[in-house]
Amino acid sequence: MLDHSPDQELVGRSRGGDADAFRALVERYQGVVAGVVIRMLGHGDEADDVGQETFLRFYKALDTFRGEAAVKTYLTRIAMNLSLNALKRRRRLRQRLVRWSDPGAFAAASAPVPDPVVEAERSELIQWALGQLDDIHRAVVVMRVLEDRSTRETAEALGIPEGTVLSRLSRALKKLAPHLEPLRSS
Questions:
Q1: Is residue 1 part of a domain?
Q2: Are residues 71 and 95 in the same domain?
Q3: Distance between CA 87 and CA 42 in Å, rounded?
Q4: How many other β-carbons are positioned within 10 Å of the β-carbon of residue 104?
Q5: Contact 14, 25 (CB under 8 A)
Q6: Residue 82 and residue 87: Cα distance in Å, rounded?
Q7: Do residue 103 and residue 123 come from a single domain?
Q8: Are 33 and 76 part of one and the same domain?
Q9: Rounded to the nearest 5°, which phi and psi values hold at 43?
Q10: What's residue 112's pLDDT?
Q11: For residues 75 and 33, is the Cβ–Cβ distance under 8 A?
């Protein structure tokens, strides 16, 4: 059953621990948040995660929310900031993968891509390409390239010598290169 109480009343009740009041706010604004996030990121798990994180951040901020902005505006701002952060993470991921597999392709990969659908397709391609690697090579790429850990940190985390990290990384990047070719031409 929908609660038609004003937003500020629901916020006050939510601060007091009323889960039904917070649920009413989520139900009232989930469409707004979803619209922002999907337009920014496209459909998918990442968009779902950002939508959930938006409400989690709002919940954690209830005690400091002063109501100077409308709840809708506040949630939209949180959703937009989280979406922009997700796009930055995608871009960094793409840049790292392309940089590591072909230093000459870095400039093309770092060009801004305003279309979230294109960004989603690129992210899917990178994930698919990583899936083409066996576990030992994927682990090195994830640690060394995607998490940007040093060779030493990667070696310690995986329990292998630094030379093995470097050789596995080299082999993995050679295997990834043909799969990432579409990123270079876009």
A1: no
A2: no
A3: 11
A4: 9
A5: yes
A6: 9
A7: yes
A8: yes
A9: -75, 150
A10: 54
A11: yes
Share of the chain above pLDDT 70, in %: 85
Q: Pick 3 or 49 by higher pLDDT.
A: 49
Which range has the top average pLDDT, 51-60, 104-113, 128-137? 51-60
Q: How many domains does the chain have?
A: 2
Q: Residues in the chain, how many?
A: 186
- If asked whether residues 105 and 82 sit together in one domain, one would say no
Query: Which of 31, 101, 17 lies closest to 63, judged by CA?
Result: 17
The whole-number pLDDT of residue 1 equals 56
What token pair was written down for 63? 């005690």
Residue 25 belongs to a domain: yes
Q: Which residues contact 101 (CB under 8 A, 6 or more apart)?
A: 173, 174, 176, 177, 180
Both tokens of residue 35? 């619209």
Q: How far apart are CA 30 and CA 171, in angstroms?
A: 45
Give the distance between the most distant pair of CA atoms in the chain.
64
Q: How confident is the model at residue 38 (pLDDT cuts 50, 70, 90)?
A: confident
